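Worked problem 6 (solution included).
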Amino acid sequence: MYNLEKIGSDGRSRRKAMGLTQEEVARRSLIHRNDVIKIEKGKFTGRILTVAFYLQTLGMTLTTAVKQRPTIEEMEDFE
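Solution. The predicted structure is:
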């Protein structure tokens, strides 16, 4: 399972391997350089689409999984 820090760390590693600066990635992603910095530090709290643009520029994809949690009523059945 990925968290924001792992996404940022992997993105930074990929960016460096591609020989790109944060500014170049920001320009190609059509996002602000400050957003690139925050993403790579695992501190980004903006739109998920911004992260998707960043990752797409690096040849990476963002996928999600929806996990259904039990309702309160279902949890009461376990007691």
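Discussion: Residues 1 and 67 are 13 Å apart (CA to CA).
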